[in-house]
Design brief:
Layout: H1 2-20, E1 35-36, H2 37-46, H3 53-62, E2 68-70, E3 76-79, E4 100-105, H4 109-115, E5 117-118, E6 125-127, H5 131-139, E7 144-149, H6 151-156, E8 162-163, E9 169-171, E10 173-174, E11 179-180
Antiparallel strand pairs: 1-3, 2-3, 4-7, 5-10, 6-9, 7-11, 8-9
Helix pairs in contact: 1-3
Length: 181
């Protein structure tokens, strides 16, 4: 149990560094969001966040949301999506399923129904392929509500969708007319 807590703590810190604030430990992300594994480990250790390659591997492999990925040689690491810093993840547009789901808190529903789902400070709106995942996402913010997104209709009307490496669907904006409560 203690090890699980430690891995979660490391995962949260990695999310901060690889998605939002690489400067916190003094690493840089390339245009595609990658940074050197060796440098990341070195900088994390120097900043008081002890980690080695074995622990980093375990965090990447066991993270239930598959937030991180190594390149083929495992020399580079990046977050799969959710960046607030400018990166180009290199995803190609794909046809989504007819319906996708967005989990949010009850307190956000009125605003979303009015203006749609906006990406805000992220690169994309994140959508789930199933209601269970969307419910889990919504619970992080309060009493969960799952909205159905008419993604098939959006796609037919020329909205672009991307599928991240960890199964999260991404799009730039979901206008209110494509939402069902």
């Amino acid at each position: 149990m203690e090890k699980e807590k430690e891995l979660k703590k490391i995962s949260k810190f990695l999310s901060l560094v690889l998605r939002h604030k690489p400067e916190v430990i003094g690493v840089e992300l390339d245009n595609n969001g990658w940074t050197s594994v060796e440098l990341l480990i070195q900088k994390m250790n120097a900043s008081g966040h002890p980690i080695d390659l074995e622990i980093l591997n375990e965090v990447v492999q066991t993270n239930n949301k598959k937030r991180f990925a190594f390149n083929e040689s495992q020399a580079l690491i990046r977050a799969n999506q959710g960046h607030s810093v400018q990166v180009e993840l290199g995803y190609t547009p794909q046809q989504p399923p007819e319906k996708l789901y967005h989990g949010t808190a009850q307190t956000n529903v009125d605003s979303i129904i009015k203006s749609g789902i906006e990406r805000r400070d992220r690169h994309h709106v994140h959508l789930s392929p199933d209601t269970e995942t969307a419910t889990n996402v919504g619970q992080r913010h309060g009493k969960p509500v799952v909205l159905t997104v008419l993604s098939g209709q959006m796609y037919q009307e020329r909205f672009a969708f991307y599928l991240s490496e960890n199964g999260v669907w991404l799009t730039d904006h979901v206008p209110a007319q494509y939402l069902q409560k």
